Amino acid sequence: QPSILLGYCQQCHQLEPTDYESLMEWVEHRDDVIGSFEIDQEAIDRYNIDKQDNKTKKDIVKNLVVMTTFGSNLSAWRQVWGFTAYDVKIPRWYKNYETDIIAIASIIVKSHPKRDIAIAAWRDGDEKKSYKKNKPPTEETDMNYKKVLALILQDKESEIVLNAIYKCRQKGIIVTSYIYDGFQ
Fold first, then answer.
1. Cβ-contact 108, 14 below 8 angstroms
2. What angle do CA 106, 110, 112 make, to 5 degrees?
3. What pTM was estimated for this model as a whole?
4. CA angle at residue 125 from 122 to 126, to 5 degrees?
5. Which of 65, 98, 118, 138 is 20 to 30 A from 25 via CA?
6. Of 88, 143, 87, 93, which Cα lies nearest the Cα of 118?
7. Which residues contact 69 (CB under 8 A, 6 or more apart)?
8. Burial state string for 94-108 with b = 16 or more CB within 10 A and e = fewer than 16
């Protein structure tokens, strides 16, 4: 989905490349960005032992980017992984990304043709229900643009997958399943 988001940014006339530099860096140099995070291996081991899992630093950093992109924050991420502030040294890249993604989400959502559908879906799924269904937000603070952006990106990802399956079928390839990012 970050690649899809980058495509939206590159097509959006309200955004300049400097507005999404951190996103572009993630998409084009993800391994370098992941390498810039310092996570105590003992903290990763603690998590894996406690959860009987096998997560790597790469898995953990990717999770932070996804959580941040779609409405969460660093504090919630630390809580998910059981990390303290001493377990992780966050690079400057993340602080730039966190700032950039807020502006990107707002601009993309406001200009997206499926904006109203995504906002309505977000409101339907929001647990607080502190507003009337399908009522336009009265203030920008009424809406979590990053969570609405997540719905827009999920829709686009589904469209891409369905188009890929259709093209496979046209070539005589039978797709029997789609799991995560791969066909069978």
1. no
2. 115
3. 0.79
4. 85
5. 118
6. 143
7. 1, 2, 5, 101, 146, 149, 150
8. beebbebbeebbbbb
Cα 170 to Cα 67, 165, 173, 174, 175: the distances in Å are: 36, 9, 7, 9, 11
Written in H, E and C, the secondary structure of the chain is CHHHHHHHHHHCCCCCHHHHHHHHHHHHCHHHHHHCCEECHHHHHHHHHHHCCCCCHHHHHHHHHHHHHCCCCHHHHHHHHCCCCCCEECCHHHHHHHHHHHHHHHHHHHHCCCHHHHHHHHHHHCCCCCCCCCCCCCCHHHCCHHHHHHHHHHHHHHHHHHHHHHHHHHCCCCCCCEECCEEC
Q: How far, CA to CA in Å, does 102 sit from each of 38, 64, 146?
A: 24, 15, 7
pLDDT in tens, 12-50: 888 999 999 999 999 999 999 999 999 999 999 999 999
Whether the per-residue pLDDT at 180 is higher than 80: the answer is no
